[in-house]
Every structure is written in structure tokens, then in C-alpha cells.
Design goal:
The structure is a single chain. By secondary structure, this protein is mainly α. The chain has 20 helices and three strands. It has one domain. 63% of the residues lie in helices and 3% in strands. Strands 1-2-3 form a three-stranded antiparallel beta sheet.
Length: 486
């Protein structure tokens, strides 16, 4: 399987209008899917019963306790202020923010690779992921976490391309954006941890592996002047571990201003302790919530979350939002919103991140082989070029930074907690697909094109349960492939 990683690629097409038209098309597709029918369920869906009401509380001055930092609710409140306390009013800001996620994914993909084709494929995959779509269509806060986290990482990558005052400015903006991610949910720290891991890894390569570079031209390639790993070495320890965290903390602290003024009986540090205690007390298991799922089940999407489910006799009836459900054998129409990813994209992304981990391990193993002949053999058969080593390393480390901390979490967790990590596995499959589509070998070109069409077909097939479109009971069961999905 690793031979697929060594397939040569055609040279990237020069800058032209097709890329910008394609990127505009991806953003328009994402916006159309997210804004269509935002108000069709005239009821609070899933955690909207908390977040939409909390946003409204900020507008009318009602004190309340929230287990998460306030930034996401501020943005929902802004939407309510402009659009009113109605389904469209408290959802449109999410739809707008979610429409920009594919653009940010494409921007990061381009900064990692300088390949417009890769950026376009990554943006397209983000536009047709079901979980990203569902989270963008309701007054929930995960989409803001992703937006600020991705924005911070993109700004950090931009800082690598400059020096002097421009670098300081971009590092400041990156720190502010990462602080914004943390001010939505504490697990926004995963985006900052990913930056730390890639910097530490670059430092380790320069210190321990670079001295062996005379025997390995690939090492010299990855650390040569102008490469991302070499530019990472230009970021000073204090810039990364002192300056950026200070900026992030200041933003995080400032975001609490309105909330603390509205709830003056509790101080900042006391409120942080209350939030931590709340999460520690939640517990786990079906008795806590029927859709709890363990972290190791997320990459295979074993237990998605049902956000909305109602039944009706005919499609001519208004969409039901309240009242008892019809008996199972009497229902003729089912309205269901499932917070689940695009299965084809999800499972292929998991396979892609496993492939990249294996490839990185084999390449690092080759650096420590003592026998020259064995080293040459490993290098030719298993290793990517020096320039390509950076991108898989970046994706794998950021994936790990956003997934592995959940191992030690004992409270009830849900599939949507995997969303930050899933973005990097999504970029992993997009990178492999781009390489295969650009390959000179028809077999690999066919494989890449097949995966793109498979992802798009899967999205269309499961689209009714992302948008809550009416389904027959048979159509609903046809899309629930496993009992754990229901």
C-alpha cells in the first residue's frame, strides 16, 4: 500500500482562473447547503435549548451559568440581535461561519503544499462532510471552535513565510485566533498543542537527525533553506511558548468581560473552577445520555448523534416539531437530522491517516538504519521526498493533538468532539487523492477520481438526514447501516 505514496505527480498547473472559479464554487456550494431551509424546524434542536437561550440571555441581561466559555454564545447573540429570536435568527451566524470552513481548509492545504489542486480537493471534501454541515445549520458552538482554531493555524503557517514585523503581526493574530478557539471550548487548546508538537518535532530533527543528513539526502531536502521545517526553526522558543500563549490568554480573559458583568457574584477564577467541576461530575454511559461514545469509536463513526426525529402521516402536513411521536407502524414520513459524517469520506479519511502514520514511521526508521544498503533500500521503497515529509508530519501531529487528549477524559463524550481531529484526516485523504489524480499511472488516476465520486455520491445519498428531508420508513432504514447509528 505504501507504494501509493511514492507515485510521481505531474507538475502543478500554473495559476489560472479555473482554480479561483472552482474555489468560489466550493464556497457557494457550502453556503447554499448551510443556508437552505434554516427555519424549517421551528423548534430548538438538541443543544440549541442551551446555546440559543444563552445567546438571548446576553441580550436581555439575564444571569445564568454556562459550562463553556462565552464566545460562541456571543456570536449567536449577535445573530439574534440582527435577525430576531427565531430559527433563522439564531442559526444564520452558524451557517455563515460554517460556509467559511471549506475556504480555511483549502487555505491551510495550500500553505502546506503550494498545490492548488490539493487545496481545491480538500475544500470540496470539507463542503460535503455531513457533520460539518449539520453543525453549521443549528445554533451550536462547535463550528466556531473549528473556525477560530483553523484560522489560528493558517495565520501561524503564514507567519513562517515572513520575517521581522510581519512575522510578529501574524504570530499575534494567530495567538488571538487560538485564544478565540479556547474561548469557545477548552478543547480549542488542541490546535495550539498541534503547533507545539510540530515545532518540537522540527527541533528534534534538526538536533538529532540532521547530523546524519550526509547519508540521507532526503533529510537535507526537508531541512534546506526555505523549507517549512527549516522555517519552523526560525520561530524562537519564547515566541512560541511565551508570546503566543500570552496573547491567547489575554484574548480568552477579555472574552469573559460581558459574562462577568452580567454575573457579578462569581469571579473569573472561581468560574473556571465551577466549569471544571461541572464537567468532572457529568459521568458517562447510556444512563447519562443515550448517545455517549468513547474516543476510540469516533474514527469509525460507530455512534453518531440523533439531533432531531419526528414522524408524520403525509408530506403535506406541516413539519412536526412538538407532540408525541406516531407509533412506529403508523408513521409514513420520517424527519430525521443525524449528526454524522459522510461515511465514505469519514472511513477513507481514517484509512488515510493510518497510511500516513505508517509511512512516517517507516521513514524515520530508515534514518536510524546503520547498514548503508538497507538504508538506501528503505529510502527508495518507503520514504517520501524531503519536501513531502513536512505535510504528512503536520497532519498526523495535529490529528493526534486533537484526539489523544480525550483518552483521559472520563465524562460522557460525543462524536462531535472528534471534529477538530477529523479535519486533519480529511486533509490526509485529500492529499492522497490529489497525488493519485496527478499520477502518470492510469490505475492511480482512476483510484483518485473514483474516491472523489464515491464521496460525492455518499453525500447525496445521506443528504436527507443532514437536512432533515422527509423520508419513508424504508428510506430511513436504508440509511441506518448499523444498529448503533439509530
Amino acid at each position: 500500500m505504501l507504494r501509493l505514496l511514492t507515485v510521481s505527480s505531474r507538475k502543478l498547473l500554473p495559476r489560472s482562473s479555473w482554480f479561483w472559479l472552482g474555489l468560489a464554487g466550493v464556497v457557494c456550494l457550502a453556503a447554499a447547503l448551510r443556508f437552505w431551509g434554516l427555519g424549517r424546524f421551528n423548534t430548538l434542536v438538541f443543544d440549541e435549548v442551551y446555546f440559543a437561550k444563552f445567546g438571548y440571555n446576553y441580550l436581555n441581561g439575564t444571569p445564568f451559568f454556562d459550562a463553556h466559555p462565552p464566545l460562541g454564545k456571543y456570536l449567536i447573540a449577535l445573530g439574534i440581535r440582527l435577525g430576531g429570536f427565531n430559527p433563522f435568527g439564531y442559526r444564520w451566524m452558524n451557517a455563515l461561519t460554517g460556509s467559511l470552513i471549506p475556504l480555511l481548509i483549502a487555505a491551510i492545504a495550500y500553505e502546506l503544499s503550494r498545490r492548488r489542486s490539493y487545496a481545491l480537493i480538500a475544500g470540496l471534501f470539507a463542503a460535503v462532510d455531513g457533520l460539518l454541515l449539520v453543525e453549521s445549520r443549528y445554533a451550536l458552538i462547535n463550528i466556531y471552535l473549528l473556525f477560530f482554531g483553523l484560522l489560528g493555524q493558517w495565520l501561524f503557517l503564514l507567519a513562517l513565510t515572513t520575517r521581522g514585523a510581519k512575522r510578529w503581526l501574524r504570530l499575534s493574530l494567530a495567538g488571538a485566533s487560538l485564544g478565540g478557539a479556547i474561548a469557545v471550548k477548552w478543547n480549542g487548546l488542541g490546535f495550539l498543542l498541534g503547533i507545539y508538537l510540530i515545532w518540537i518535532c522540527a527541533w528534534g530533527i534538526q538536533k538529532f537527525i540532521s547530523p546524519r543528513s550526509s547519508a540521507f539526502p532526503e533529510v537535507s531536502d526537508s531541512l534546506s533553506e526555505g523549507t517549512p521545517l527549516q522555517k519552523l526553526g526560525e520561530i524562537h522558543f519564547l515566541q512560541l511558548f511565551l508570546y503566543i500563549p500570552i496573547i491567547a490568554f489575554l484574548v480568552y480573559r477579555l472574552e469573559w468581560g460581558l459574562h462577568l458583568r452580567q454575573n457579578p457574584s462569581v469571579g473569573f477564577w472561581q468560574l473556571q473552577q465551577q466549569m471544571l467541576s461541572y464537567h468532572e461530575r457529568i459521568g458517562n454511559g447510556p444512563s447519562v445520555h443515550p448517545y455517549c461514545s468513547a474516543w476510540f469509536t469516533w474514527p469509525l463513526m460507530i455512534r453518531p448523534v440523533d439531533y432531531f426525529y419526528q414522524t408524520a402521516l403525509t408530506t403535506s402536513e406541516p413539519v412536526p416539531v412538538v407532540g408525541p411521536r406516531l407509533p412506529q407502524n403508523a408513521a409514513k414520513v420520517i424527519y430525521d437530522v443525524h449528526a454524522m459524517g459522510n461515511p465514505a469520506l469519514w472511513w477513507l479519511s481514517t484509512a488515510a491517516i493510518v497510511i500516513l502514520i505508517w509511512a512516517l514511521v517507516r521513514r524515520i526508521e530508515a534514518w536510524f538504519v546503520v547498514e548503508p544498503n538497507a538504508a538506501v533500500h528503505l529510502g527508495q521503497r518507503y520514504m517520501m521526498s524531503g519536501a513531502e515529509f513536512w505535510l504528512p508530519l503536520y497532519l498526523v501531529l495535529n490529528y493526534s493533538a486533537n484526539l489523544l487528549p480525550w483518552i483521559d477524559v472520563s465524562r460522557c463524550t460525543f462524536l462531535y468532539h472528534y471534529m477538530p481531529a477529523s479535519l486533519y484526516s480529511l486533509m490526509a485523504i485529500a492529499w492522497l487523492v490529489d497525488r493519485w489524480v496527478q499520477s502518470v499511472h492510469p490505475l492511480f488516476r482512476g483510484l483518485g477520481i473514483t474516491i472523489i465520486f464515491l464521496v460525492l455520491l455518499a453525500f447525496v445519498f445521506w443528504l436527507p438526514i443532514y437536512l432533515g428531508l422527509p423520508l419513508s420508513p424504508e428510506g430511513f432504514r436504508m440509511r441506518m447501516w448499523f444498529p448503533s447509528w439509530i
